[in-house]
Amino acid sequence: MMNRLHFTLMLVLAIPGMVLYGCPAAPEHCTGCLARLADARPVDSAAETGIIVGSGGDTGSGGTIGTGGVEASGGMMGTGGQGTGGAGSGGRGTGGSGTGGASTGGSGTGGRGTGGSASGGSGTGGMGTGGNATGGTGMGGGGGADTNPVLWYKFDETAGTTTAADSAMWGGTARPGMLGTAGTGGIATFSTTRRVGTNALSLTPAATLPNTNGGFVTVPSLHTLAPGAITIAVWVNLASVTATENWERVYDFGTGSVAPNNLINMYLTARAGDALPMTPVRFTITTTGHAVGAEQRLDGTTALTTGWHHIVVVLPASATTGAAYTGTLYIDGVVAKTNNAMTLHMSDLGATTNNWIGRSKFAGNPFFRGLIDDFRVYNRALSAADVTALFAVR
Fold this sequence. Notes:
Layout (H helix, E strand, L loop, with lengths): L29 H9 L112 E3 L9 E2 L12 E6 L4 E5 L8 E5 L9 E5 L11 E9 L10 E6 L10 E5 L12 E5 L9 E4 L7 E9 L9 E7 L2 E9 L3 H4 L4 E4 L12 E9 L5 H9 L2
Antiparallel strand pairs: 1-16, 2-3, 3-6, 4-5, 5-16, 6-15, 7-12, 7-16, 8-9, 8-15, 9-10, 10-11, 12-13, 13-14
């Protein structure tokens, strides 16, 4: 039966250095094939070799590790490598297909939001190319104090300076405050004893009583800067809390003290002298004078002590002209008083001419004695979270 076998395939002996010759297709050579199988010998040369088994291709190298986003907003593009395998010569070598390594991009940092309790945005990193690299997700920036007032006196000037810079620059226009004194003996300067920033405004009335001479700052009217909704925030540090300081003004916007102009007024006093024995903080806005029932007020419930206190008045816009809204007084970040029957805004007062920090439009009231810092005016109603953020600013 063996001489009828027909070898049609190349055979490879598992003997080192040995290989069979290929068998021709003609069946009459099968006996020869058997003979050669009997005394197989080493191959003398490549010429005697039939078809040698092809060697496999080089192992393909995998892709390099993809780089994720670098630490930045949103992350940069990560780039993964792609490996290319080499093809084997003479055989069926298989090139390796490289796979880019997965990597994680760094965390980007979201910017600080504007607007009081503004939250920083979260950026998303870009996808890596070829290596499954994933850009990092930006972390939101911390909420911060609203930095868009329409009037802002930091009072960071040094002693001897006679103007207070307006850091708001609303509409591209600077509206500096002008330091001045009335009468003799008053002082308006800057002190390194501050609450926010580097310095604070220092106001000292005349030493002799009554202290109706003193230092103050002249500021612009607010009727065009904040005609509707308004927020006024300020730090105060009372040098004294005796009856001598009753009715001293933190700020006052009005048009004279003689009728009929004396009817128009908006002010904040640190000590309301008619609310004995408490003498609390009082905010008032009126166009019909100061008789009982004429003023729209926000009265605190306790008297201020010496030391720093943050006072914020928030008057939202009316839903319709003349409609009632709820005004709010904050002291040291906490609601001290609300009034849901308020209707007036700065537009109702018009262009006031006596606009002062530390001075009343009424000549008989004392000048402010102490320190004032970080005076801000906004043309919107700050939220409770905004006020909390302002209170935390140092």
